[in-house]
Amino acid sequence: MTTAPTAAKGLEGVIAGETEICNVEQTSLIYRGYEIADLAANASFEEVAYLLLVGEKPTSSELAAFKAELVAERALPAQVCEFLKGSGDLVNNHNAVPMDILRTGVSILSHLDGDSQDNAPEANLRKSKRLLAQIPTIIGHMQNSIDGRDFVAPDASLSHSANLLKMMTGENPTPEAEKVMDVSLVLYAEHDYNASTFTSRIIASTLGDMHGAVTGAIAALKGKLHGGANEAAMDMLSDIRRDIGPENDTAKITEWMHNAFAEKRKLMGFGHRVYKNGDHRAPILHALGRKAAEARGDEFVKLFELGETVQKIMEDEKNIYPNVDFPCGMTYFTMGIPVPQYTPIFVASRITGWCAHIMEQHANNRLIRPRVAYVGPALRNWKS
Q: Which of 190, 157, 242 is nearest to 40 (CA)?
């Protein structure tokens, strides 16, 4: 007897596979056995990247070798640099956004990587390290092009996080800014079968290559219901500030929120398919961002106070909690990062999780091919 497939809209509640990489629960977020608060407090992003890609916590010598590999791979091929020189024009004068530029940059890299057509474990790991090293350079060169500045070369003396910030701005970041960026990359690095990761695994399950799977994942992450939520959350706070003025008048904020509820406006940065009682990552990043705001001045503190009022209204009236994208928007704004680069920076982190999943899929593959519930017309005759 054949059991009929069970339909689940959005695959909600469906177990679509097994993984050793990450466990997302109501009460915890774990990367290969390590809880996220432990990692955020005690591990650098390079250590977390090694953990995700290789499978174990690195020794001091393994970490040093891993960092050296990443530094050696930061520079981009000439063909990618040539494309990025024109990326500012595509963003400023045409219809491109930074996530489109990043997606194309990764796709071009595939043509220039000697391992691109090889899905063997060793080749996949080499490609993973190269992508991890090269994506911040794409982001930095792209931002320089958008701003009309010369490219900033990667700085071998800086950490992954500090180098990313310097290439975007041309200035060495403060230790505080480096720390905030590093923790944010740790928090965003992995999150089981989210939409972009599942996209990458579907592509990998066809025996598609690493660069192709990552390109598809970037396209999925661009959407406002996924990675683009951090940009949309900041846009929402900007809308509130524009409409109510510079002071955080609680009555005006409440009125704005009630109007949004009445209009059934999608308020980004809140709610999560898994975390119904709050995202474990959100308070970690909120605390760091709030501290950075206090160091920068009243304008940025007021932004966080506005966000905290919005958050309280959502919790009290809708019982919906912020996800990590909500404090991310405020934190990156406080750091002076252009809003359209928030999601590309997400990629600079999540590339570790994507590559780990692609390698895991290739290592124990079965084509991902679900069924669908047909709800169209009954059988018809063409000539009738």
A: 190
Residue 226 falls in the annotated catalytic set: yes
Which pLDDT tens digit goes with each residue over 165-187? Answer: 999 999 999 999 999 999 999 99
Directed axis angle between helix 160-169 and helix 45-54, to 10°? 120
pTM of the model: 0.94
| 325 tagged catalytic | yes
Greater confidence (197 vs 17) lies with 197
What is the band of 130 on the pLDDT scale with cuts at 50, 70, 90? Answer: very high
**100, 155, 226, 235: the active-site residue:** 226
Looking at residue 1, what is its pLDDT?
Answer: 44
Catalytic, out of 160, 272, 280, 286: 272
**pLDDT tens for residues 74-109?**
999 999 999 999 999 999 999 999 999 999 999 999
pLDDT for 313 equals 96
What is the domain class of 22-223+340-363 according to CATH?
Answer: mainly alpha
Catalytic-role residue among 182, 209, 279, 325: 325
Start-end ranges of CATH 1.10.580.10 in the chain? 22-223+340-363
188 neighbors 324 (Cβ within 8 angstroms): yes
Separation in Å, CA 88 to CA 124, 234, 383: 31, 22, 55
What tokens were used for 97? Answer: 């956004």
Range(s) for CATH 1.10.230.10 in the chain?
A: 229-334
Higher-confidence residue of 8 and 39: namely 39
CATH entry 3.15.10.40 includes domain 229-334:
no
